[in-house]
């Protein structure tokens, strides 16, 4: 059934990616910086626990990390990260539940899920087969596939050597080029290949992929692997151009985002509740706006149509597997 699911999604996505050719231009608005900082600071806990307290049962614990533009904890675009807005929208349609924000580095989030602590993380990659670590919601939205991201000079060299789309297997084997990425990041279908090679740097600490792009821009790394919207955010923030190169191993394979919660009774209850309001979440104007904002000017494919048709493809594939 899982193989059928992947096959159906792959076929539908390939058709989708070939079908549309517009680019959305969206104005980026700065957000108020003070209130969110206070909210996170006042509500942060080191280790949440399941409790019978009625007030605590009304809380949904969200693990968030300093990784723009997924979460933008401070600065010009504070609270305008994709997953910042996703959390806000979830609670718009689950108004009887209040959010609690738990700021953690990415490896600590993975540990919390492994420990089955009562937390959810809004920025996970959807896995139709599930996993021991987490239980997943239905897909919330799509990302364009992971790309190689580098500076203009290195991009010219890589394209001359390996063409485009580039073979990630070949690039990873070329030790002349220094790969860096944030510690704890996962890369969907590319992960098994990445696991075969040690990076030059797996960086811990705040800043996420933006810190990695700063290192590429300053010549301390050569390339990273990430979503095109990361380069878009970096260019918006620093006015420094980065180049994205498509990867042959995941070409035409969009990535579905999902909410993941601890794989226990608490987490399954939260995911069940979130899935009940998923149609409203997917169509919420504020959520669609932030998705367009960070995905504009990164592809010739119109993001609105890409996201809408892609989610429909996932839903149809899931329906096909259930019937079988």
Key structural traits:
324 residues; alpha+beta; D-Maltodextrin-Binding Protein, domain 2; 2 domains; four-stranded antiparallel sheet; three-stranded antiparallel sheet; 45% helix; disordered N terminus
Explained architecture:
The chain is an alpha+beta fold and 324 residues long. It has two domains: 21-144 and 256-323, Periplasmic binding protein-like II (D-Maltodextrin-Binding Protein, domain 2); 147-250, Periplasmic binding protein-like II (D-Maltodextrin-Binding Protein, domain 2, 3-Layer(aba) Sandwich). 45% of the residues lie in helices and 15% in strands. It contains 14 helices and eleven strands. It has helices at residues 2-19, 34-43, 54-57, 82-93, 106-114, 152-162, 168-173, 191-195, 208-217, 228-238, 265-276, 278-283, 285-295, 303-323; strands at residues 59-64, 98-103, 120-125, 134-136, 141-143, 147-150, 180-182, 201-203, 223-226, 243-246, 255-262. The strands form four sheets. Strands 3, 4, 5 and 11 form a four-stranded antiparallel sheet that branches. Helix 4 runs antiparallel to helix 13.
SSE diagram, text form:
Layout: H1 2-19, H2 34-43, H3 54-57, E1 59-64, H4 82-93, E2 98-103, H5 106-114, E3 120-125, E4 134-136, E5 141-143, E6 147-150, H6 152-162, H7 168-173, E7 180-182, H8 191-195, E8 201-203, H9 208-217, E9 223-226, H10 228-238, E10 243-246, E11 255-262, H11 265-276, H12 278-283, H13 285-295, H14 303-323
Parallel strand pairs: 1-2, 7-8
Antiparallel strand pairs: 3-11, 4-11, 5-11, 6-9, 6-10
Helix pairs in contact: 1-14, 4-13
């Amino acid at each position: 059934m899982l193989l059928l699911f992947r096959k159906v999604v792959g076929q539908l996505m390939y058709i989708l990616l070939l079908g549309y050719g517009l680019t959305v231009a969206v104005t980026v608005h700065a957000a108020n910086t003070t209130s969110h900082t206070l909210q996170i600071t006042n509500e942060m806990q080191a280790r949440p626990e399941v409790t019978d307290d009625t007030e605590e049962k009304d809380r949904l614990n969200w693990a968030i990390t300093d990784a723009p533009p997924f979460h933008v904890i401070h600065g010009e675009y504070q609270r305008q990260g994709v997953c910042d807005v996703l959390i806000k929208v979830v609670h718009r349609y689950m108004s009887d539940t209040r959010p609690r924000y738990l700021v953690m580095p990415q490896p600590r989030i993975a540990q919390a899920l492994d420990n089955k602590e009562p937390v959810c993380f809004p920025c996970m990659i959807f896995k139709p087969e599930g996993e021991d670590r987490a239980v997943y919601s239905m897909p919330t939205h799509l990302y364009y596939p992971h790309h190689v991201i580098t500076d203009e000079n290195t991009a010219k060299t890589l394209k001359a050597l390996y063409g485009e789309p580039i073979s990630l297997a070949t690039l990873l084997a070329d030790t002349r080029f220094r790969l860096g990425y944030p510690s704890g990041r996962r890369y969907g279908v590319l992960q098994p290949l990445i696991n075969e090679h040690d990076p030059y740097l797996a960086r811990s600490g705040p800043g996420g992929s933006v810190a990695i792009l700063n290192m590429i821009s300053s010549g301390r790394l050569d390339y990273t692997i990430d979503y095109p919207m990361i380069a878009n955010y970096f260019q918006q923030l620093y006015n420094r151009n980065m180049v994205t190169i498509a990867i042959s191993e995941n070409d035409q394979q969009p990535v579905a985002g999902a909410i993941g919660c601890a794989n226990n009774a608490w987490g399954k209850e939260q995911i069940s509740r979130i899935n009940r309001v998923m149609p409203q979440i997917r169509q919420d104007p504020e959520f669609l706006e932030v998705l367009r904002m960070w995905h504009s000017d990164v592809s010739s494919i119109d993001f609105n149509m890409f996201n809408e048709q892609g989610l429909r493809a996932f839903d149809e594939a899931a329906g096909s597997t259930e019937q079988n």
